């Protein structure tokens, strides 16, 4: 990751914001032929549908809904990473429902964020508490067995947490990226319906972008998602 970060203008040991982290993950995924889903990153709140599936010019999401199964085009499995900022120093309460809706979706693979200077991986919620995994807590590697029956109870237990770690949603940093896994046009349409009530945060668009960020743009050029410790992890 440190090596990939050099192309983003980051040095080993520097903090990464959500957009920088998402871009590095994309670069690592694209460079690994064994990683099957392609990776799509957005930081402007717009998921360009034509980047995920081939569309005829002028086709809208509503028209995609009306197509019969045999008329729908195929698409590659895709990991979508949406980098966003949902407040100034803390998450604005108006976005609590957005976070919970994402974590409730079967298409969501989790949210990477945390608290200031502390990276966390949110996987669910209970009331207003977010359930998270701490990437700083490592476990010993389990030796690979020839079959599942060869794993003992201690091996299996190591893949689970003995207790849930939680933090109140109001305490997390407003900078984060949300991950979604899409493997078909139907799941893309399902994501569209899930996110439609939250178009102020993210929207699936079939309209071509007005402008594009150049390939040479560094992480810090998009300052809304990078900079000081409070929005880095």
Automatic annotation (TrEMBL):
It comes from the Eukaryota. Residues 1-188 form the Peptidase C54 catalytic domain. One of its GO terms (cellular component) is nucleus. Its EC number is 3.4.22.-. Pfam families: Peptidase_C54 (PF03416). SUPFAM superfamilies: Cysteine proteinases (SSF54001). GO terms for molecular function: cysteine-type endopeptidase activity; protein-phosphatidylethanolamide deconjugating activity. Keywords: Autophagy, Cytoplasm, Hydrolase, Nucleus, Protease, Protein transport, Thiol protease, Transport. GO terms for biological process: aggrephagy; autophagosome assembly; mitophagy; piecemeal microautophagy of the nucleus; protein processing; protein transport. Its main location: nucleus. It catalyses: [protein]-C-terminal L-amino acid-glycyl-phosphatidylethanolamide + H2O = [protein]-C-terminal L-amino acid-glycine + a 1,2-diacyl-sn-glycero-3-phosphoethanolamine. InterPro entries: Papain-like_cys_pep_sf, Peptidase_C54, Peptidase_C54_cat. The keyword Signal does not apply. The keyword Protease applies. It is found in: Nucleus; Cytoplasm. Belongs to the peptidase C54 family. Required for selective autophagic degradation of the nucleus (nucleophagy) as well as for mitophagy which contributes to regulate mitochondrial quantity and quality by eliminating the mitochondria to a basal level to fulfill cellular energy requirements and preventing excess ROS production. This is Cysteine protease.
């Amino acid at each position: 990751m440190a090596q990939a970060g050099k192309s983003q203008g980051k040095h080993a040991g520097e903090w990464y914001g959500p957009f920088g982290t998402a871009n590095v993950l994309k670069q690592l995924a694209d460079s690994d032929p064994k990683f099957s889903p392609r990776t799509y990153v957005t930081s402007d709140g717009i998921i360009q549908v034509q980047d995920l599936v081939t569309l005829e010019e002028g086709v809208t999401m509503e028209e995609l809904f009306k197509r019969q199964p045999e008329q729908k085009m195929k698409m590659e499995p895709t990991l979508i990473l949406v980098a966003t900022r949902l407040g100034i120093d803390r998450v604005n309460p108006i976005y609590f429902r957005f976070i919970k809706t994402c974590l409730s979706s079967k298409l969501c693979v989790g949210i990477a964020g945390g608290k200031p200077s502390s990276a966390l991986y949110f996987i669910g919620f209970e009331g207003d508490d977010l359930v998270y995994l701490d990437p700083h807590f490592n476990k010993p590697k389990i030796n690979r067995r020839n079959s599942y029956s060869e794993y003992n109870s201690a091996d299996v237990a190591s893949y689970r947490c003995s207790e849930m770690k939680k933090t109140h949603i109001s305490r997390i940093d407003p900078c984060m990226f949300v991950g979604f896994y899409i493997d078909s046009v139907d799941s893309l349409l399902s994501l569209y319906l899930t996110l439609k009530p939250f178009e102020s945060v993210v929207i699936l668009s079939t309209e071509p972008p007005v402008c594009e960020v150049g390939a040479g743009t560094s992480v810090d050029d998009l300052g809304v998602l990078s900079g000081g410790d409070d929005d880095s992890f």
